[in-house]
């Protein structure tokens, strides 16, 4: 877990009032439908699709991302879609706090809990639900509609339970994400 | 799908070379469709969906044929010779240069193929296991039609469109 500090060009990142750092080279579609909780980092070439919203009038939050989250380079976050009662719709996606998403991952989950670590090159299928304190290994393919219970480690294609996490993992991930944001992620 | 509907192509996508696009296709932002060799071409049918970061590359000679109502999901790479109709290429899948994909096939997430897939083949898992699907794809076709309708309505509201 001891990573060296990563230094990024300050001019590349846009900092918001709540402390989010969003790369100018990321693609954020429909930003009026996206909520970032604060202190979240979105790296370059990420794609967040806020435009794929539920049809109907009024304001709708499509992608809600909590605090201290990290979206690695080239990852794609898009809400899931299905037909329900004969109506096709995209449905909102919730990502809670302290969630790490590695490079090149594709996320179409319905819900991701807090303290979740998703590795590189993962694919999280449509309407998957990932509960709190989980780890998804690099290259895992979580099938659509899967529910991943708390404190589990999933890996492989299709993803299966490979290990369990200790109860202390909440503090470990929390400390890791805070430390990363405050100390390791340096804008120069 | 009525044959007169124009295709919805986002301005943020890359479309290069001799490409004939049919009607009612949807090309999402950051998708690239390219023909590498002069003289070759890609012929795209009707009602296909190309999602983000999809790469369609035709580097060989002659024509690459893409049928109707196929869906290319996020980040897949298609370099094959042809694809039928109603097929799904899932996220992160890879179709290599010598492959021909039939109709109603599903190439699962992160699967690779370099050989031909006959009609109704499903490829899945780490070992790229193949199986023939026996269920009709009526549901999938229905979903696809509605998905197309939705995307054609919503995408122009949020993105700049390419006017051909």
TrEMBL record, chain A:
Pfam families: DCTN5 (PF21711)
Gene3D superfamilies registered for this protein in UniProt: Hexapeptide repeat proteins
Signal peptide from the UniProt entry: none
Subcellular localization: Cytoplasm, Cytoskeleton
Family matches, as InterPro entries: DCTN5 (IPR047125), Trimer_LpxA-like_sf (IPR011004)
PANTHER family in UniProt: DYNACTIN SUBUNIT 5 (PTHR46126:SF1)
Family stated for the protein in its record: Belongs to the dynactin subunits 5/6 family. Dynactin subunit 5 subfamily.
Name of the protein this chain belongs to: Dynactin subunit 5
Automatic annotation (TrEMBL), chain B:
Cell location: Cytoplasm, Cytoskeleton
Coiled coil regions in record: none
GO biological process: mitotic spindle organization
Molecular function terms, GO-annotated: dynein complex binding
Entry GO CC: dynactin complex
Main location: cytoplasm
Keywords annotated in UniProt: Cytoplasm, Cytoskeleton
Reported function: Part of the dynactin complex that activates the molecular motor dynein for ultra-processive transport along microtubules.
Name listed for the protein in its UniProt record: Dynactin subunit 6
């Amino acid at each position: 877990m001891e990573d060296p500090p990563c230094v990024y060009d300050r001019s590349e990142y846009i900092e918001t009032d709540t402390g989010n750092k969003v790369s100018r080279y990321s693609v954020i579609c429909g930003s009026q439908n996206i909520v970032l909780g604060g202190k979240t980092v979105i790296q370059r070439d990420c794609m967040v699709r806020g435009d794929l919203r539920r049809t109907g009038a009024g304001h709708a939050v499509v992608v809600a991302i909590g605090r201290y989250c990290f979206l690695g380079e080239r990852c794609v976050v898009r809400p899931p879609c299905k037909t329900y009662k004969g109506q096709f719709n995209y449905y909102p996606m919730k990502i809670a706090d302290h969630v790490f998403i590695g490079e090149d991952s594709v996320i179409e989950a319905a819900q991701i809990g807090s303290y979740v670590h998703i590795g590189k090159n993962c694919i999280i299928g449509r309407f998957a639900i990932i509960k709190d304190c989980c780890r998804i290994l690099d290259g895992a393919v979580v099938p659509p509609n899967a529910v991943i219970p708390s404190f589990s480690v999933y890996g492989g294609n299709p993803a299966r339970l490979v290990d369990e996490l200790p109860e202390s993992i909440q503090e470990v991930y929390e400390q890791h994400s805070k430390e990363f944001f405050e100390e390791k992620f340096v804008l120069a | 799908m009525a044959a007169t509907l124009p295709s919805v192509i986002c301005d943020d996508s890359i479309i290069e070379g001799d490409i004939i696009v049919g009607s009612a296709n949807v090309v999402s932002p950051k998708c690239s469709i390219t023909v590498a060799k002069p003289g070759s071409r890609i012929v795209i049918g009707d009602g296909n969906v190309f999602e983000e970061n999809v790469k369609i590359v035709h580097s060989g000679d002659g024509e690459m044929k893409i049928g109707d109502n196929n869906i290319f999901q996020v980040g897949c790479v298609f370099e094959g010779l042809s694809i039928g109709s109603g097929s799904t290429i899932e996220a992160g899948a890879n179709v290599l240069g010598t492959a021909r994909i039939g109709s109603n096939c599903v190439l699962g997430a992160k699967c690779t193929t370099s050989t031909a897939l006959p009609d109704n083949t499903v490829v899945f898992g780490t070992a790229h296991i193949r199986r023939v699907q026996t269920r009709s794809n009526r549901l999938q076709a229905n979903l696809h039609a509605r998905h197309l309708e939705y995307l054609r309505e919503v995408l122009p509201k949020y993105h700049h469109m390419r006017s051909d």
